[in-house]
Amino acid sequence: MNVIELNQLTKRYGQSRGIEDITFSVKEGEIFGFIGPNGAGKSTTLRTLLSIIYPTSGSASIFGKDVVAYGPEIKKQIGYLPSEVFYYDKMKVKDLLHYSASFYKKDCKKRIHELAERMDLDLNKRIDDLSYGNRKKVGIVQGLLHGPKLIILDEPTGGLDPLMQQTFFELLKEENQKGATILFSSHILSEVQKMCDRVAIIKEGKLITVEKISTLKERNHKKIRIETRVPVDAGLFAMDGVTKIESEEGNRISFLYSGDINLIMRRLAEVQLVNLWVDEPDLEEIFLHYYEKEDVQDEHVPARA
Amino acid sequence: MNMFRHELRENRRSMMIWTFSLAAVTVLFFSMYPSIEKDGDQFIKVLQNYPEGVLKALGVQINSITSLLGFYSYFFLYIMLCGAIQAMNLGIGILSKEGSGKTAEFILTKPVTRGGIIISKLFAVLAILVITNLVFLVVSYAMARAVAVNDFDIRAFFLISAANFFVQLMFAALGFFVSVLFLRIRSVLPVSLGVVFAFFIIGMFGSVIGDKASRYFTPFKYFNLPYIMKHSAYEPLYLGIGAAIIAVSVGAGCLLFIKKDFHGA
């Protein structure tokens, strides 16, 4: 069952770019990453899903219900963490969380204390006395305290130290095991790589692809780096399946390769190697690769499959 | 209900400060009344030396200023000025706090309708104004009773006092509408002071030149205090205009709020 469905969702703001024709869906129980550089339209998409802003055209549904028409009903089961957390400054953390809990018809006291303890958050401080990271924690507790079935997070880890990020991801995984679906946006790929089942990649307001993380990684891309005794022409490796050739002083060459491993080995054997590294590329490289492919297509150069 | 309570809590301090200030002003003025009443003739003589324009601008009615209601309606203009500032602050602040504090995302992602949010907020504004005016009325009436030499028309007294409430409703409604239009008003006070004083000055100007048309342009003049004093009644036409202003501002504000896109940082 799909928890979230976006159907040609479009949001334009006058002249400036919003999002264009975004279509994808998120299945129940999935951890879904939404990834792209700053300004690609991630927040716009999430905010439209929550009807903080309204779509120009197209539609989106959550739990099978239209997000605009059934917003309040849907939101009972959603926990949202905005990218920038600025809550009512003069309130104490405790009061804000209780206020937040008062919107849901269940007793969240115990959960608030549990979460605050896990996140190491002082409930008695005033919000304007908190650091950025601590405000983020307030946001996280606020988003999880009612045990939502769908958790939407916009750039969730900014400001959290690595240890806290770890705790936070553990929390999310627990929620996920309890059955929560998670959609989160990020421009940090390692985050997504660690957490997600599938990702949607967005660029300049347009959806580029939706892939399983495992497929992305399994696409049999190898990152190959060589060091040669004498400088060689990097053009030697310009063959089918090779991308992103980089040459440093002529004798240190790196590239991505996908295809029959024997072909590339034969080519490599033609030069005098000092050293050879073959790695799985990280998502970042795959990701950049996607972006470049798009650019290439834009220039009407036939794209390599 | 939770949002209503929250708004009351958030505005508790400012409500107490404003209520206290309004009460203090009325206590102060009324405590001057006995000496004015006692030396009435001299006071009037002094006033007669003032240019007529100044008297009109200050809202002084020489023939009635030494009566309790006359004096009340004289300084009540300043009560209304303070009240208008309070109301405008409240009307603007109730929404722009969400915009400038970026708390809109918090409230809009809760399982409530936008209509529900706005109604809670408007009722909170109403409740705060009602409380302020009730306290003011009690203090004012007690003071009036304490300093009154002769009996005075209680109905007129209440009508004058209630004028502040209606003027406040108008300014709160205007403020609310302004705040929906420009969601991110970071400093509320300069905006509300500007608007309120603009209207106040229009009112003064209108009194000085005796221009009838200018009455339509300032809520301060919808409640003509000498008229209320004399007739123990409001003027239906201006009451109607006032009600229309409130209805249009609130209605348009609500519609805009429901349709509006809330942008992030």
TrEMBL record, chain A:
InterPro entries: AAA+_ATPase, ABC_transporter-like_ATP-bd, ABC_transporter-like_CS, ABC_transporter_ATP-binding, P-loop_NTPase
Record keyword Ribonucleoprotein present: no
Species this protein is from: Fictibacillus solisalsi
A single MF term (Gene Ontology): ATP binding
Record's protein name: ABC-2 type transport system ATP-binding protein
UniProt keyword terms in alphabetical order: ATP-binding, Nucleotide-binding, Transport
Keyword match Coiled coil: no
Family membership noted in the UniProt record: Belongs to the ABC transporter superfamily.
Domain ABC transporter: start-end pairs: 4-229
Annotated coiled-coil segments of the chain: none
From TrEMBL, chain B:
Keyword Coiled coil: no
TM annotation in the entry: 15-33, 71-95, 116-144, 156-181, 188-209, 237-258
Keywords linked to the UniProt accession: Membrane, Transmembrane, Transmembrane helix
Pfam family, one: ABC2_membrane_2
Keyword Protein biosynthesis: no
GO cellular component, one term: plasma membrane
Coiled coil segments of this chain: none
MF term (GO), any: ABC-type transporter activity
Protein name, entry field: ABC-2 type transport system permease protein
Lineage: Bacteria, Bacillati, Bacillota, Bacilli, Bacillales
